[in-house]
Design goal:
Spermidine Synthase, Chain: A, domain 2; globular; homodimer; alpha/beta
């Protein structure tokens, strides 16, 4: 469907994301704003009835204006309030810009480099979802269209924080869930640096979570997994993985910095920061020995 | 649809629960096990492809075998591990039996009284969902088919814990969200007693959460709200409300009792107990002054 055949609002139009052919999430759509196929994936932006504008990659919901704050605040502020003075941040993926928007709210951040493989995602979001993309014009922000896997293999730059803001481990994002990628991420981190990555569904992707944690456990001395709940992703409860050689997001977290920052949050706060690392029992059991014990 | 017209498994059959006509959750159905209309509501039990057997009241998903443990463990164990020695428990609603199943895992509990208004729910679950209903035959359990609103207005019995395991505040459950009901609940509590109630969706029902907390704030000196994430309810992230005149679920919680109990959990644990009370910022703002500050 191209944008010149946008249906009239009178149609009872719904977009559905099916998961494993057992469950489907449907969103009522008012109209299609953009539809294209890049070298990497199908990219669609729709205006929904209840969730604002929504970005879909290969038919999977990536961003909705209604609840994007949950994902973007949690992937950014948990590591940024753990590191005492993050200056240089690399975001791999995240072409919608929402993660970058949260990163540059921290006054210590001098430089935020976004490396997104798919220019169509960046352009579609720049045109249709300024809520997340407007920050990409900020003077602290550098946008590179390129392969994040190659970037971390080749760059000589060091970063205090690397955020892997990826789609699911299929298609262009698959190497972002592999061992070699994280070895390179490790060598791009400055002393005391942190990496945080999109960690998939708590209920549906336990094997992937174990795999990601295993890779990180081989590379880093501190690894953790933390959860968040949103409206848009299948099953609602999803995770991020966290790794660092020096900084524990619980033991090294100074909660007084949160209020002192003056940043306005919608989901994150000093209570949620700690609570997000407290996992339900079935998840702890499924992760088994890949999950390191909490600090005393 | 009656049970003698059960469709063959070959049909691509889905049941959909729509929420405010902006979002729909669809579950693939293998066959209908029960379908009836009681004095109070439509009652359906289906066998789903990915979520086991599911109970629907008036088309709204109430129970799925896949994730019912989340709701039932959290509504029961949070208050039962806060009260030092709960002996007598009243469950209003909850005709599927899942809450009672968790309550009687606590050895201190001598008597658990279930008061469910709709006999059809109890009978359908007894026949088709033994996972939740088998416990209703336990010798500690008394099942009364009757109106919980009348029960708490008339009984002279006292309870250490009252659990309001209700459907949404429409139809037969509407009075369970009212002021008079909670005044009567209050007078049925023994000294140091606790009430916990189904508290609706975090993302979609903020006005209802404020209303429930306001009613409880007028009656009880300690009130709180805690969250859980499941797969079945719209938006995933839902709440329970908590009230007591004496016992705070954070300050009075002795986490060593959890492991010592020997109870096997799937969702609840000593970490989740505390973390569930840490609310996202948008929820804290929406609840405003109805949300009491956390203890130091």
């Amino acid at each position: 469907m191209s944008s010149d055949t946008t249906p009239t609002p009178e149609l009872d139009l719904w977009v559905e994301e099916r998961h494993r052919d057992i469950v489907g999430a449907r969103f009522k759509v008012l109209r299609t704003l953009f539809s294209g196929t890049s070298e990497y994936q199908k990219v669609d932006v729709v205006e929904s009835a209840g969730f604002g504008k929504m970005l879909f990659n290969d038919g999977l919901a990536m961003v909705s204006e209604r609840d994007e704050f949950v994902y973007h605040e949690m992937i950014a502020h948990v590591p940024l309030f753990t590191h005492p003075e993050p200056k240089r941040v690399l975001v791999i993926g995240g072409g919608d810009g929402g993660t970058v928007r949260e990163v540059i709210k921290h006054p210590s951040v001098e430089h935020c480099h976004l490396v997104e493989i798919d220019e169509m995602v960046v352009n579609a979001c720049r045109e249709h979802i300024p809520l997340t993309s407007a920050c990409l014009n900020d003077k602290k922000v550098q946008v590179t269209i390129g392969d994040g896997v190659k970037f971390v293999a080749e760059t000589k730059e060091k970063f205090d924080l690397i955020i892997v803001d990826s789609t699911d481990p299929i298609g262009p994002a698959a190497p972002l869930f592999g061992k070699e990628f994280y070895q390179n991420v490790h060598s791009c981190l400055a002393d005391g640096g942190i990496v945080v990555s999109q960690g998939e569904s708590v209920y549906y992707e336990q094997e992937m979570q174990r795999s990601l944690l295993s890779i990180l456990n081989n590379e880093f001395s501190i690894t953790r997994l933390f959860n968040y709940s949103n409206l848009t992703y299948p099953g609602g409860l999803w995770s991020f993985v966290y790794a660092s050689d020096k900084r524990c997001p619980l033991a090294d977290f100074d909660e007084s910095r949160v209020a002192a920052s003056g940043i306005e949050f919608q989901y994150y706060n000093e209570y949620i920061h700690r609570a997000a690392f407290m996992l339900p029992e079935f998840q702890r059991k499924a992760l088994g020995s890949t999950l390191k014990p909490l600090p005393k």
